[in-house]
């Protein structure tokens, strides 16, 4: 207990909440009941030449792996992507991997299409060797049909999207979020800014800013009706707006911050 407190202090990890799990000092301790999946993940981590988890990974990984909601704040470049991608892959495997696919089981939201593509690339790299199906939600993909004439997104395990694009697919009945077990919002601070400004086209007209970002996220979360869906927010900064967002969408969360000035 005291040892863990000293460990966190040394790495400038601040953790708040009920029953915060211990930090994960090594990737080899990843809590993964599926030995073959664990081997694959460790091999992919090794080929990234990552020696040990970064501080945000050490604390965020075990929190997410146990299914808890999380508010995570750490500077740009501190490894936040893997901090949510690895536990998401662990949880995907646990939930009916062998059953027919009928809708995505995890959702990663990002403020821009570019960032969504980067996250998707990281998922594919860390999951290499497993049969997970992952995609970025785009207009083009939404317009295609699968072999059975069903919405194409039912064939994916994990979707990465901007809230606006996902909401559009949702409203057009092209994606079913009822089986989603985990929703992660990356760069929540930027998401929030974008949502407030609204997107404009080249003529300066507003494009579908019919809702604030919070409204968009609320509508997406309302469509994720699986019981006790896990939610997490990742951000480089922690402005008051993110606090408000966190308290309105997270349930009994653990808050983790690393290397903030206020530490
Ligand atoms: P953030 O989202 O916090 O800005 P990223 O997830 O983009 O950070 O990661 C920043 C860089 O750190 C990437 O190049 C990534 O490959 C690398 N990285 C991630 N985890 C580790 C690790 N455990 N050890 C070394 N490098 C890492
Ligand atoms: Mg990032």
Automatic annotation (TrEMBL):
Transmembrane segments: none annotated. Residues 61-256 form the Helicase ATP-binding domain. Belongs to the DEAD box helicase family. DDX52/ROK1 subfamily. This is RNA helicase. It comes from Nannochloropsis salina CCMP1776.
């Amino acid at each position: 207990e005291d040892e863990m407190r000293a460990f966190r202090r040394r790495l400038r990890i601040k953790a708040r909440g009920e029953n915060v799990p211990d930090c994960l000092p090594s990737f080899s301790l990843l809590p993964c009941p599926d030995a073959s999946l664990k081997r694959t993940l460790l091999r992919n981590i090794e080929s990234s030449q990552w020696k040990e988890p970064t501080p945000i990974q050490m604390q965020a990984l075990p929190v997410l792996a146990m299914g808890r909601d999380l508010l995570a704040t750490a500077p740009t470049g501190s490894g936040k992507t893997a901090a949510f991608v690895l536990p998401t892959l662990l949880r995907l495997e646990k939930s009916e991997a062998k059953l027919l696919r009928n809708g995505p089981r995890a959702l990663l939201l990002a403020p821009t299409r570019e960032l969504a593509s980067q996250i998707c690339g990281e998922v594919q790299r860390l999951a290499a060797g497993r049969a997970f199906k992952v995609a970025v939600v785009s207009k083009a993909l939404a317009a295609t049909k699968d072999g059975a004439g069903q919405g194409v997104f039912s064939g994916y395990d994990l979707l990465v999207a901007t809230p606006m694009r996902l909401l559009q697919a949702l409203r057009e009945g092209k994606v079913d979020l009822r089986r989603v077990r985990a929703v992660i919002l990356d760069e929540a601070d930027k998401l929030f800014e974008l949502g407030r400004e609204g997107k404009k086209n080249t003529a300066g007209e507003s494009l579908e800013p019919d809702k604030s970002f919070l409204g968009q996220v609320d509508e997406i979360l309302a469509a994720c009706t699986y019981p006790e869906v896990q939610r997490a927010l990742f951000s480089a900064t922690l402005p008051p707006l993110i606090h408000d967002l966190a308290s309105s969408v997270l349930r009994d969360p653990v808050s983790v911050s690393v290397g903030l000035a206020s530490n």
